[in-house]
Amino acid sequence: MHITPDNTGLWGVKQTEEAAKKVTDLLQEDMEQHHVFFNKDHFHNHIPHHLLALYGTQCTSISLIQKAYDNNVNYQRSVLPRHNQDTKVFSSGNPWPSTAKKYLGKEEFYPDFLTFFQSEIDKNGIPEVLNSYLFGDWEEMMPRLFGGALHPLIQLMYGMEWNQPAIVAEALAQTAVHSDQMKEYLQSAESRQSQKGRMGRMVDLFNEVRSNEKVSTAARSSDNQKIYDGVLERAKEEMISLASRVKIGVDEIEERTAEMFETCVYVAAAAARYGRVKLGKADKFDFFLMHHVNSSPIFVTINAQEWITKETKARTLEWKVRMDLLQYAARGVPELGVDKLTGYQPKNAREGESIQDIISRLHEFPDDGHGIKLGRAAVVCRNFCKKYEDQGKDWVQIQGDDTWKKVCHLIVDSVEAPGDTWVRSGGFDEAWEVSCV
């Protein structure tokens, strides 16, 4: 790990030598001492994201960076031992993924995959390794990249955005040990791609998910896994049919990236107000929809890499949009509407503040990093999408500096509000009774 003061991610802020060294040391310690999952239920270690999100939003306080680490280190699991002999079959020179297939999806082989990908990157560099083992493997690795509430994608985002070979290796190893449960849905929607001509607005696809009676009612509050037990169990064909209409041409990648990003922020922010508007509860972002915002900046970074083909960029973005639609269905299709954002009254607005100033309040928020990651992503989105608002694009939902400030205030106000930090599956009234006061 090696972070420098001029390497601060998409916000492009200035940092200090002291903060850079602190983040470097803590990232190294985390990699050497902690496993990718902190429990047997495969809940993810978020320490790398948390540290870099703080650093990338100009948290220069050494004590706050250290505190963020200390608050989350005690429940981490120690690294697992490698299976030195067993996994030599997927060492360099052997065909991938056939020789590694029996180890994929198995948590206990994470340290072996990590060692393997570290070695491959050391020899060949990030571009060649990603093009070979990830973007070149749509049968095994790419479906796993979109598993686990997009956590492998998020890990890869921080590795690519900060150009850290060690974190990219962690992301590839994490991808390798995730389930491939999303494969059938993603591949089926792709193979049945039905859109004639250019795709319409993404927000209209979300509205169709909500208006489709079978899809919108497939998930139930009682389902343990609302994607697998709900949507893909009771409305698989209908969901695949909707997702098959996602189509992104190689000549529209940048604008469609902005549209995906802005639509994710709009959906998550509007959904966060559902409990207040309908039930009188505190505003809360949905835990799952939040991850679809937090992961979106990776597509800004992917688009900037000349070594990734346009076809790969478009295809990867299509898969992300299909996951966005599926997740919205699984969370109970909370009602949307721009008025929910324009009508929001921030709790602690200050004259002359920027959206960066608002989000910086989260530097002191004691969580596992989800809050500052959400705030960071919202600012990246505003900066990336503003030119399309200026051009009058009809897909833009969040318009004007004032509304963006309200969105950022909503993020901060919601995590600081009493009750759980997040609501889980916020389209169901029962979720708000459990999570919020």
Structural write-up:
InterPro entries: Questin_oxidase-like. This is HypA protein. It comes from Podospora fimiseda. Pfam families: Questin_oxidase. Keywords: Oxidoreductase. This protein has about 425 residues and is an all-alpha fold. The chain folds into 3 domains: about 55 residues; about 90 residues; about 180 residues, no CATH class. Helices cover about 55% and strands about 0% of the residues. It has 23 helices and no strands. Helix 2 packs antiparallel against helix 3, helix 4 packs across helix 5 and helix 12 crosses helix 18. It is globular, with a radius of gyration of 21 Å.
Detail the poorly predicted runs. none
Query: What are the secondary-structure elements, in order, as H or E?
Result: HHHHHHHHHHHHHHHHHHHHHHH
Radius of gyration, in Å, reads: 21 Å
How would the global form be characterised?
globular
Described by strand count, sense and barrel closure, the largest sheet is: none
Care to count the β-strands? 0
Q: Which strand-content bin applies to the residues?
A: under 5%
Helix content: 55-70%
Distance between the termini: 42 Å
- Structural class by helix and strand composition: mainly alpha
Number of helices: 23
Mean pLDDT: 92
Tell me the domain tally: 3
Keywords: Oxidoreductase
Pfam families: Questin_oxidase
InterPro entries: Questin_oxidase-like
Organism: Podospora fimiseda
Quick tags:
437 residues, mainly alpha, single chain, globular
Question: What's the topology here?
Answer:
Layout: H1 17-33, H2 47-56, H3 62-73, H4 110-124, H5 126-134, H6 141-145, H7 151-161, H8 165-176, H9 183-191, H10 202-211, H11 213-216, H12 226-234, H13 236-243, H14 253-272, H15 274-279, H16 287-294, H17 297-303, H18 310-330, H19 339-342, H20 355-360, H21 370-390, H22 401-416, H23 429-435
